[in-house]
C-alpha cells in the first residue's frame, strides 16, 4: 500500500469536513485513538460515535486548513487548523498534529497533539 497516497486521501476528506467518511474508509475496526487530553478510544465504532457527537455540536465550520504532511514507513503526520463555532456559543480553535500508524492500508493508531 502506498501510505503517501492513502494519507493524502484521508487529509483531503478531513480538509473538506468529511471526517466521518474518513473514519469509515480509512480506520481499522480495532483502531486506537488518543486525544491531546489523554482520552483513549479503542475501536472504530467508538471513535466514530465520539466524533459524530462532537460534530453535532458544531453550529458553523469557520475553516479547516490543511498545512503539511509527512510520511515515513508506516507512520504519517498531518497538520491542520480547525476553527468551529459551537452551538453552545463557544469557539473551538485547534492547531493540531495528527500522527497516524498504518497497517495493511488502514489507520490502526491515531494520536492528536495540539500545536
Key terms for this structure?
115 residues, alpha+beta, six-stranded mixed sheet, 6 strands, globular
Class based on secondary structure composition and strand pairing = alpha+beta
Biggest sheet architecture: 6 strands, mixed
Biggest β-sheet: strands ordered side by side in the sheet: 2-1-6-5-4-3
Helix content: 25-40%
| Beta-strand residue percentage | over 45%
Name given to the CATH architecture: Roll
Count of β-strands: 6
Give a quick precis of the structure.
The protein has helices at 3-15, 19-26, 44-56; strands at residues 27-34, 40-41, 58-71, 75-86, 91-103, 106-114.
Could you describe the 3D structure shown?
It is a single chain. The protein has a single domain (3-114), classed as Roll (Nuclear Transport Factor 2, Chain: A). It contains three helices and six strands, in the order ααββαββββ. The protein has helices at residues 3-15, 19-26, 44-56; strands at residues 27-34, 40-41, 58-71, 75-86, 91-103, 106-114. The chain has a six-stranded mixed sheet with strand order 2-1-6-5-4-3. α2 packs antiparallel against α3. The protein starts with a helix and ends with a strand. The mean pLDDT is 97.
